[in-house]
Design brief:
284 residues, alpha+beta, Jelly Rolls, 15 strands, signal
Length: 284
């Protein structure tokens, strides 16, 4: 009796094995097809220059398109109210500058280079890390004016490679030192775009303003941001891609001359690049 049971069990196991073998083979075939398809896609992405796949999680060439970010920009656009000055004082797109040289109308205590910028049209003044830039003209800015420029960024990995970019106004037009904030080297204000922390900080050494706002900067690892500044007496207004990040008094009534500056990040990692173009200064 026991022998019969063992024989029956053996036949049962053989039957199961006979059925499972083709099922297992089908599973392996499907898995192989899936892996091959993924490999084919990666090869196609590399050949077509898709850096997102070929080099990891590099950001897109445009601001982030997540649902939250779209809502953020849509909401901000409702309060957009920037009016550029009509009396142009100075404009520069670096089209007349020699490639590979420092821009003729700008000065710095370090160096910079006018070049083509990845994924962008025209020429750009590309920054060197730990360097500040000012206009060569020593003529003080008027009491009411606007400044506009495009800020381009390019990183092969993500925004953490870009660090922070600061711009604002100083009491003098000297160019021997790096302006790191609003409190040193005769600076008055600074708006700091912190790509690493995804925030924008505004500070004034005169009015003691110091505030930080969150900003969806993850999508700007590769891309272009339009910056708009309006100064009307004591008040300073700043828009980043039509998002208002500042609208308050940043100067005292007794503030004397003001000169624009922009400071590159302390460190640019993994061959990241930052540059400006399409600069325009106009009186209100």
């Amino acid at each position: 009796m026991k022998t019969k049971k063992l024989i029956a069990a053996a036949f049962g196991a053989m039957a199961i094995l006979a059925v499972s073998q083709p099922v297992h083979a089908q599973f392996l075939k499907k898995l192989k097809d899936k892996v091959n398809a993924q490999l084919d896609k990666k090869v196609d992405d590399v050949l077509s220059g898709n850096k997102n796949t070929a080099q990891g999680s590099a950001s897109s060439s445009a601001p982030s398109s997540t649902t939250e970010d779209k809502k953020f920009f849509e909401k901000a656009a409702l309060s957009y109210n920037f009016s550029p000055g009509k009396d142009q004082i100075f404009a520069d797109d670096f089209s007349k500058d020699a490639s590979g040289r420092m821009a003729l109308s700008w000065k710095t205590g370090g160096s910079g280079s006018v070049e083509k910028f990845p994924n962008q049209e025209g020429k750009w003044l590309i920054f060197n890390e730990y360097t500040s830039y000012k206009l060569k003209s020593d003529k003080a800015l008027p009491s009411k004016f606007t400044i506009e420029f495009d800020l381009a960024t390019h990183s092969l990995t993500d925004t953490e490679d870009l660090g922070s970019i600061g711009f604002g106004f100083a009491h003098d037009n000297g160019n021997t030192k790096f302006i790191s904030d609003a409190y040193n080297d005769n600076a008055i204000t600074q708006t700091e775009i912190n790509y690493y922390g995804k925030t924008v900080n505004n500070a004034s050494s005169e009015t003691k303003i110091n505030n930080t706002v969150n900003f969806p900067l993850a999508g700007y690892a590769i891309g272009k941001m339009h910056v708009e500044i309006a100064v009307n007496g004591q008040n300073m207004l700043v828009y980043l891609d039509k998002v208002k990040v500042l609208d308050t008094d940043m100067f005292l009534k007794s503030t004397g001359n003001k000169y624009f500056y922009i400071s590159a990040p302390f460190k640019l990692k993994h061959d990241a690049q930052v540059g400006i173009s399409n600069f325009r200064l106009a009186a209100l």
